[in-house]
Amino acid sequence: MAILTDKDREGVTEELKKLTGPVKLVVFGSQLGSEYSIETERLVREVAECSDKVAVEVYNLHIDREKATTYGIERVPAVVVEGAKDYGIRFFGIPMGYEFTNLIDGMLVAASGESKLSAETLQRLSGLDKPVHIQVFTTPT
Amino acid sequence: MRLAHHLAVASEWIRGDCVEATEFPDLTQRYSVMAVPKTVVNERVSFEGALPETQFVDNVLRAVEGEGDAG
Question: For chain A, is the Cβ count within 10 Å smaller at the N or the C terminus?
Answer without folding.
Answer: N
